[in-house]
Every structure is written in C-alpha cells, then in structure tokens.
Amino acid sequence: MKARVFSGIQPTGSPHIGNYLGALKNWARMQYDYESIYCIVDLHAITLYQDPQQLRRQIQELAGMLLAIGIDPAHSSLVVQSAIPAHAELAWMLTCVTPVGWLERMTQYKAKSAAQETIGDGILQYPVLMAADILLYDAKVVPVGDDQSQHVELTRDIAQRFNSLYGETFVMPETRLPAVGARIMGLDEPEKKMSKSAPGSGHAVGLLDSPEAIRKKILRATTDSHPTVDFDRLGPGVANLLTIFQAFTEWSDAQMRGHFSGMRYGDLKKQVADAVIAALEPIQQRYRQVMDETGYLARVLEEGAQRIAPIARTTVEKVKRAMGLYTPE
Ligand code: AQP
C-alpha cells in the first residue's frame, strides 16, 4: 500500500512562483508515488477577513490552477477543506490538548498578529487546524515550503502529546522540502519571503502573470552594488534570482556556476525572466483549458471529497473513542 501525502494551499489571492517552487511542483511530482490528498484550505483563509464573493471565486481559480500545474484527479484527491466538516471537528479536539505557549511561539503567528490591530483567535489556532488537516488522513509526508515546516513540527508535537495522553492514535508526519526553492524571496525585498498578500506590484511573480509583466518584475528586482555574479559573495537578491532559475530549470550547481559566474546582473535577469516565462507558458495554457471546461472543476472537487470523506470520518470516530466522547453504539 502506498504511503499517504497531504498538503494544502490557501485561496488567499493569486498563487505565485514561491508557492509553485516551494510546494506545488512537489505535489505534482509525488502524486505518482504516494496516495495523495491536496486541499484548498479555505478555513485557513478566513483567519484573516476575506471578501465572501472574492473568496468563492478564488477557490474555483485555485482549483483550476492546481489542475493546471499537473495535479491529476486520476492520481490525487483534490478537495476543498470546508467540504469536509471533520477538519474543524478534529481541530477542536486537538485544540484541547495544545498548550497556548506552543502556538504563541510560532513565527507566522508573531508576524501575522503584529500586523493586526486586534488579533483573531483563528490566527493563533491556525497551526492546530493544520495539524488536524494532516492527522485526519494519517499522512506520512507533507510537502510544503520552508515557512510551513515549523507548523509540521508542531503537528508532530501535538500528535505525540495526544498519543501519550490517550494512547497510540496518530501517525507521525514528516516534512518534505524541495532541494532548491524551499523559500523564494520577494523580488523587491529579498529579505522577506515571497507572499500572496504582500503589497506591491514588484513583489511576487504570479503564476498567471503575462510574459511582459514577468519580464518587467524580474528586470526591476532588487540586487546589490556588485556589477556581476560572484558565487562566493552572493547578496540575497541575486541569490534569489539564481534560485528561481535553478528551481525552474533543475540545472546542477556546477552548471549554474559555470554558466552564471561573472555574468552582469542585467543579463542574469533576462535569462531568469526567459526561464520563468517558458516554464509558466504551458501552465497558463492548461489553466485556460480547465477553466473553459464547464462542470469539470465541480466534478473533480466532488469526487475528491467523496473519496476521502470516509477516511476523515473514521479518524474522527477513532479520536472520539480514544477521548471518551459520545459515539453511537
Ligand atoms: N515564498 C515561498 N517560497 C517557497 N514556498 C512558499 N510557500 C508559500 N510562500 C512560499 C508554500 O506554498 C504553500 C502554500 O502556501 P499557503 O497559501 O498555504 O500559505 P503561506 O505559506 O502563508 O503562503 P503565502 O503565499 O505567503 O500566502 P499568504 O500571503 O496568504 O499568507 C505552502 O506549502 C508554503 O510553504
């Protein structure tokens, strides 16, 4: 029997090349070797206010994009989190075994709460819901970008605490990061990770950006005061551009050094832009096909939910029994 993989993405805006290189590319690759469940985590998205109409549209568009990047419904279950109530149900049970101090230490909580005037409880509870997502399906492997690896570690801590209080119940999940591209940085601010919700038109390359927009953003990317690429003293902006190129092309380190050493930044940027445009072109074409096919998305999401809902139900029943909660005889 194949081991199970689970991962999720929030429908909080247009997905960018950071999402793709950090997580989605691995999702598409791993689906042939694992039993794969990929989830549009809309319950996570509402930890910050979302315009309801826009959220509804973004869920559809993200589903289309996941199919476009290569998620194959014949090999993966593609689902929307809120279609399966067991996510929220298990999250509550796990909340009750999670010390608040563990949650307050999370880097993403600190960053997101610092930007808010009043902090919603959902922002603090976010990693518990993520733990529920993963543990609900006994996922062995969780392919994510580097920013989410702290949350997968916390999932392990929560699972261990639950198992020690109530007996062996959960499988311990492991993080899977890509070899290159686990943390793509913002083009305008290479000290900060590329983010869907970061302001500024020069920050992220969206997977649906036009070739002209991609070229413009990359040519304007922040570099440093050296004129040419020196692999022994790479500034964060240049390192980020090289990472983007390498992650898309899958060149070896030796190829990268041989080709780019001593290259002027202007030429480096042109080559990075060409590589990104070439890689995104077939994804964008497939996206348009998927979105034009009436009823296809709804069918894929419905079939995905039907396939995995019984797994989620079984886990919730198991957890309820372990905790002594009411279960019908
Ligand atoms: N910059 C990044 N580099 C590599 N991987 C990244 N991921 C996100 N940003 C980068 C990975 O993409 C997957 C989906 O992310 P998410 O939508 O669930 O939430 P996030 O990590 O909070 O991503 P964003 O883009 O920054 O969204 P917002 O702005 O809405 O918070 C995850 O596996 C993540 O690691």
Which features would summarize this protein structure in a list?
329 residues; mainly alpha; Tyrosyl-Transfer RNA Synthetase; 3-stranded parallel sheet; two-stranded parallel sheet; 13 helices; 5 strands; 54% helix; 7% strand; globular; binds adenosine-5'-tetraphosphate
What does this structure look like?
The chain is mainly alpha-helical and 329 residues long. The chain folds into two domains: 4-176 and 294-323, 3-Layer(aba) Sandwich (Rossmann fold), CATH 3.40.50.620; 211-289, Tyrosyl-Transfer RNA Synthetase (Orthogonal Bundle). Helix content is 54%, strand content 7%. The chain has 13 helices and five strands. It has helices at 17-30, 42-45, 52-68, 86-95, 100-104, 107-114, 121-135, 149-166, 211-219, 236-249, 253-260, 265-292, 296-323, and strands spanning 4-9, 35-40, 76-80, 141-143, 174-176. Strands 1-2-3 form a three-stranded parallel β-sheet. Helix 8 links the parallel strand 4 and strand 5. Helix 3 (52-68) crosses helix 12, helix 7 packs across helix 8 (149-166) and helix 9 runs antiparallel to helix 12. The longest helix is centred in the last third of the chain and has 28 residues, at 265-292. The relative contact order is 0.15. Adenosine-5'-tetraphosphate binds next to strand 1 and helix 1.
Helix-strand blueprint:
Blueprint: E1 4-9, H1 17-30, E2 35-40, H2 42-45, H3 52-68, E3 76-80, H4 86-95, H5 100-104, H6 107-114, H7 121-135, E4 141-143, H8 149-166, E5 174-176, H9 211-219, H10 236-249, H11 253-260, H12 265-292, H13 296-323
Helix pairs in contact: 3-12, 4-7, 4-13, 7-8, 9-12, 10-12
The protein binds adenosine-5'-tetraphosphate (AQP).
